[in-house]
Amino acid sequence: MIFRKKILWRRALDWLKTYHPLVIAVTGTYGKSTAAAAIERVLKTKYTVRWTPEASPDPAAIPLAILGLADDPASISWYRGLTRSFAREIASEEPQALILEIPAHRPGDLDWIARRLSPDITVVTNVGTANLELFVSKENIAHELASLAIATKGTLITNHDDVLLHALPSLSRAAALSYGTGAEADVKLTRANRLPAGQAGQREAGFALEIKTHREMAELLVPRVIARHQLLSLVAALAVGHALKIPLVTSAKTLYGFEPPKGRTSLAAGRRGSRIIDDSANATPESMQQALETLRALPLLRQGSGGQASRRRIAVLGDIARLGREEETIHRHLGRQAAQTANIVIAVGESMRWAGTAALQAGADVHHFDRPEDAGAWLEPALTAEDTVLISGGREMYMSRLVERLTTP
Questions:
Q1: Domain residue spans of the chain
Q2: Which residues pair with 104 in a beta bridge?
Q3: Interaxial angle between packed helices 327-341 and 285-297, expressed in degrees from 0 to 180 and rounded to the nearest 10
Q4: What's the whole-model pTM score?
């Protein structure tokens, strides 16, 4: 494993030295994939781009992403990885810009990467409570993120709304740029109004945004973004464009029609006319809370011309792993929030028993299942055109299997 990691990193670093792409690193606890997808759209106005969605915990994931090998890292040997990367290099033109999602799975991960990789631009989205089993506190997670910030050689872009990130610019040699909703942010989200249902030809209600820098202003419609918390990911992408001197209006135009990546609070058509909010990719406590808020805030929409309004909100929540001593407290909190949001709460997994108990005590209609397959077998026959269903859970729960079952025609 160590040999494989070293040899793939050596090949990746040789590739970087040969082609000198613009390297943009996206790190933080959650929201990385949505921000990276938006950054890709902005960069395509000026560059050819390579982006590989969020790296797995496999130590070889980052060099494989650099080389454009998007398979499951565990399935690629060092020899196969080298062979495929050389073949790809010969057969296709190499990108001018590279977007890397760099998560902090374990203490020391980002420090190890930062000693080898100096991004031109680093975007830090936030500090949350994921992986508390190893990091113990959010302050320790912020300290881990600082390693990549220090290694950045061009521009460090941070979320000004997260106070734990305020110290990062002072630690880095890079130029500092911030984004957020506060007056002191360099790229500010100054207005975010939910669109009425049916606006811009959409059955669902997205948002109308106004974004300002010190010298520019742009308006943006995103009818396919249903979650308010994802708007800052779009502003982060506009901040990257601003750092690269792409006009704000030009960057904003690229994001019209933007859809979040699958499994990250994205919307899908469910069976029998139901709506599925798919948050199954890899939920953290914060992202699950925000997904529940999206379930609550999503307008009750008519199902077709004469149909009934969506009247039932159903929350299907799977375990979030690696929370350490906070595991029970966090799951109970999620259960109480779900009870305030949904008509039916379906808890999946052992840790979610705490959430189910808390939701039951708060008066919700609660059902518990050990596996997403079992939850699907119970829920699928009960779905109607009046249902909006949130499906969320940690990576290890494979809640995407439930999404596939409920969205397959």
A1: 2-254, 266-407
A2: none
A3: 10
A4: 0.92
What per-residue confidence (pLDDT) applies to 408? 82
* Residue written as token pair 């249903």: 226
Q: What is the C-alpha separation between 31 and 366, in angstroms, rounded?
A: 29
Token pair of 299 as six digits: 């307008």
CA-atom Rg of the chain in angstroms? 21
Closest CA to 141 of 124, 158, 152, 129: 129
Q: Give 261-291 pLDDT, tens digit per residue.
A: 999 999 999 999 999 999 999 999 999 999 9
Pick from 142, 187, 150, 169: nearest CA to 28: 142
DSSP 8-state class, residue 245: T
Nearest to 249 by CA among 215, 218, 207: 218
Q: How many CA atoms lie less than 13 Å away from 247 in the CB half-sphere?
A: 6
340: pLDDT strictly greater than 60: yes
Could you report how far apart the first and last alpha carbons of the chain are, in Å? Answer: 42
Taking alpha carbons only, the member of 209, 187, 190, 206 closest to residue 198 is 206
Q: Are strands 266-269 and 275-279 parallel, antiparallel or unpaired?
A: antiparallel
CATH of domain 266-407: 3.90.190.20
Please spell the DSSP secondary structure of 261-291, one letter per residue. PTTSSEEEE-GGG-EEEEE-S---HHHHHHH
- According to CATH, the topology of domain 2-254 is UDP-N-acetylmuramoyl-L-alanine:D-glutamate ligase (3.40.1190)
Q: Dump pLDDT digits (tens) for 115-139.
A: 999 999 999 999 999 999 999 999 9
Distances (CA, A) of 380 to 83, 203, 353, 369: 45, 23, 21, 14
CA 306/CA 176 separation, integer angstroms: 53
